[in-house]
UniProtKB/TrEMBL annotation, chains A, B:
Phylogenetic lineage: Bacteria, Pseudomonadati, Pseudomonadota, Alphaproteobacteria, Rhodobacterales
CDD domains registered for this protein in UniProt: AAK_AKii-LysC-BS, ACT_AK-LysC-DapG-like_2, ACT_AKii-LysC-BS-like_1
Family statement drawn from the similarity comment of this UniProt entry: Belongs to the aspartokinase family.
GO molecular function terms attached to this record: aspartate kinase activity; ATP binding
Keyword set, alphabetical order: Amino-acid biosynthesis, ATP-binding, Kinase, Lysine biosynthesis, Nucleotide-binding, Transferase
InterPro entries on file: AceGlu_kinase-like_sf, ACT-like_dom_sf, ACT_Aspartokinase, ACT_dom, AKii-LysC-BS, Asp/Glu/Uridylate_kinase, Asp_kin_monofn, Asp_kinase
Domain annotation ACT: ranges: 264-349
Protein name: Aspartokinase
Coiled-coil region(s): none
Record: residues binding ATP: K7, F8, G9, G10, T173, D174, Y179, R184, K209, V210
Binding-site residues for substrate, renumbered to this chain: T47, E74
Enzyme class: transferase
Any GO CC annotation of this UniProt entry: cytosol
Amino acid sequence: MPRLVMKFGGTSVADLSRIRNAAEKVKREVERGFDVAVVVSAMSGKTNELVGWVREVSPFYDAREYDAVVSSGENVTAGLMALTLQEIGVPARSWQGWQVPLKTTSAHGAARIEDIDTTLLAQKFEEGLHAVIAGFQGISPEGRITTLGRGGSDTSAVAFAAALGAERCDIYTDVDGVYTTDPRITQKARKLERIAYEEMLELASLGAKVLQTRSVELAMRYNVRLQVLSSFSDEPGTLVCAEEEIMESNVVSGVAYSRDEAKVTLIGVADRPGVAAGIFGPLAEAGINVDMIVQNISEDGLTDMTFSCPVDEVARARKALDAALADGKLAFREVVTDTETAKVSIVGIGMRSHSGVAQKMFATLAAEGVNIKVITTSEIKVSVLIDRKYMELAVQALHDAFGLEKAA
Amino acid sequence: MPRLVMKFGGTSVADLSRIRNAAEKVKREVERGFDVAVVVSAMSGKTNELVGWVREVSPFYDAREYDAVVSSGENVTAGLMALTLQEIGVPARSWQGWQVPLKTTSAHGAARIEDIDTTLLAQKFEEGLHAVIAGFQGISPEGRITTLGRGGSDTSAVAFAAALGAERCDIYTDVDGVYTTDPRITQKARKLERIAYEEMLELASLGAKVLQTRSVELAMRYNVRLQVLSSFSDEPGTLVCAEEEIMESNVVSGVAYSRDEAKVTLIGVADRPGVAAGIFGPLAEAGINVDMIVQNISEDGLTDMTFSCPVDEVARARKALDAALADGKLAFREVVTDTETAKVSIVGIGMRSHSGVAQKMFATLAAEGVNIKVITTSEIKVSVLIDRKYMELAVQALHDAFGLEKAA
């Protein structure tokens, strides 16, 4: 029988009535003829509570014990989901990570999946028993419980879909799909029927928090068809799939934004080999999430270096740069910061085969009087840093300019 | 190094500060040179919450899923206790039942311990790592999680003490030991330094809820020295041990009582073989906890049969008896009930070698004007059913008469 993985996040299993609602969705797929593996998160709030306790006991906690504690939330929902399925006539049993087993590395708190042995699961499918699997957890070579990092249940789900050769991996969450842009910014935002893995990865990294980046990477690597859909409606969601499965698409699939960005410029930097490392080494050590980087044309052996980072990291970035200057590790004249900027990006695999997309973006923004401060591009993305006050305007203008309110 | 098992119940690990307090007690024993295995319950209230969820999902739940869900509370406290011990400088790691492994039967919800493999634990003791074990849980031959029934953490602790050859099993709870009687009834009640397994078993079955009966049976079978003591003081508790370890003791060790007992009498029962089975069969089927049973002298082929049971089961008992009468399975003239009775018992291994103990009890009660309605005896116990209004008086008088305020 064809197999299906259905993953329910914390808000979808927040209490017994929501678990019941999720179970009804599982039943529907079972009736369609699927052998279903349900992957569940902890009830919303539970994992935070457990993490809070661990941190309160010990700021420098043993990650093995952290994993033993925080994995327990998923065990509860897995058991309750199995019971609920039984109650509505779907034969099911729960599986904890070690029971499957889902084998991981020993990197507690952020373990990587090494292997999923599906022998037992397959045997139980044969006996007509659907599976409910505690997400987020596995077992290390030493026999200790591991967790995959926050949001790891998405990754669990995709890994199970790959290992089971599932037809699809449905990720049920509190949004009903992936949109062309944030519907709070423009009512013209449209739910995408399909989106390519690469586009989803760019959108996720740009702040669209629908799916954990790692789970999309994994889906792409193993060609697992991912569907994002809402637990609270019966509408179809968005299918994240290979480019080949998308017959027609707009050149640009979505417009993303990131509101609280800051621009930091080092003026009068000595332009010599190793200068970039000299700047970004200390920033990396200080844990600054540097995003866009631009180096200006050099004059008289001096250059300007500009980068962006989250607004709330600017103070720390300045401190790290000043310390490097004081230590003589770095030479520059001054640091200028602008904390009133935002990033707006257009994303689309269509860009690969269409020229002039970036030009159209720049022209659109110019027509609205929006000044561009920094530009970066990738094969399927163009991002610009602009004044924050123009952010909504820029998103709306670009959404219109690229005709995103209509499907291709 | 000598080994010690220390068990902390739900109220002793109810929050992080109590876990810290318990950990300090463990540290003290570690400093005394013990390899310690700590057995923990779930935080108080947690197991009830989980059981409540399971029952709400499904009144006729799959006991395997029940076990998977309700065992999670102990996993949380085991991890938190290990972290707390590490934090105060005691090297420790947590163990879940399946990791040890503690092997049980497949009787989910009330599994019996079959074997504890201590190889890994012993290896880690050698490496200087103390153990924190999630109580109440084990693993079935099928690889599913099992639980030992409510209060099963006491049983886990005793089983680990037996398997590890521990010098003692300390049960930390919210009372500081076993008393000659309930201190709320007489201020003369005295904490016993030692008590024999057999006496503890009688007291437990009489309603002194200090230890789970099963854990005392197990301790007796494997000769595990059990100490009951408080997590909230530093006083020594009561040692439950073999008779041979008790040099001197009073003839009577304790006076127990059970407040809400009812007396049910069937009058005019045909006295023929099988009549007792005819009465107590239907009662057992109805789930009535019949305690004392007395049959009066037969006259004219008719007899009276009296038994006691909890007050709140009287209505069901009556119904079961009336149904049996209507079905013709049973013949009697009438049922008389008395719901205003209580049971008072004296317990002591000294009774075995001293005669006249029961007689002294009856004389003491007679002197106080207390009428005895039913009497039952065992080798080390005499119980009487009396009017409830005399219960406190009876307990006080017996406590005085047998000199329990002073140690032997």
